[in-house]
Amino acid sequence: MESHPVREQTRPDGSVADDTPAGQVGARIRQYRKERGLTLRGLAARSGLSIGFLSQVERGISSIGLTALGSVAKALDCSVADFFDSGADSSPGSVTPLPTHFTLTRAETAATEYVSGQQTYRMLSERGPDLVLEPMLVHIAPGGRRENAYGHAGEEFAYVISGELLYEVNGVEHRLRPGDSVHLRSSVPHRIYNDTDSVTTVVSVVTPRLF
Q: Domain 100-206, what fold?
């Protein structure tokens, strides 16, 4: 599967229309923040993200990665999934509870996907309730705005399958090519960027789980 950058519809003030992925996520952050009576400063203090960055995300000018979005969700007392349209896995009906120690995901199983800015996240496993790893296949489209470097709890691993990726860790940029990987404590400020002209595909595993 290949993902392509979304053509965003910009308004005169530079913000992005709410029906684009970046605009949708930003609009919902703003909605939940206001419902809880929080200012941008208050949300910044709770999430550990800067006021300026959150303002750009709410207006759809900057995209936000899932891990940073996880901190916003925690600060707003909601789930990461609340910022996206419901996926196919939300269909009603009887569901057999998963074992707490094990999941098995078949290739033909419809995977849940989330799009935030230049990045498309394909979830690679079922939701094992007592499992802590979040494995994802991430497609990173070229260009877009660079996210702010950000640290959060947990660990992070990324393995490049195709394309190239700039992975900044603690202010130092590393260019990753197919077969390269990086593993870090996520508390160290880090960010990624695709400065090429093609989609980069990465297997990413983070802790704690986002969903």
A: Jelly Rolls (2.60.120)
User: Side chain identity at 132, as an amino acid letter?
Assistant: V
Please report how the helices 40-47 and 51-58 are oriented relative to each other, as an axis angle in degrees rounded to 10: 110
Distance separating alpha carbons of residues 186 and 210, to the nearest angstrom: 14
pTM greater than 0.85 (yes/no): no
The answer to whether residue 202 scores a pLDDT higher than 60 is yes
Q: Compute the chain's Rg from CA coordinates.
A: 17
| Stretch(es) of the chain classified as CATH 1.10.260.40 | 21-83
* DSSP category for residue 44: H
The Cα–Cα gap between 32 and 27 comes to: 9
Helix (H, G, I), strand (E, B) or coil at 160: strand
> Hey, what CATH topology would domain 21-83 get?
434 Repressor (Amino-terminal Domain) (1.10.260)
Q: Residues 105-125: pLDDT tens digits? A: 888 887 889 988 789 999 999
The span from the CA of 195 to the CA of 21, in Å, is: 20
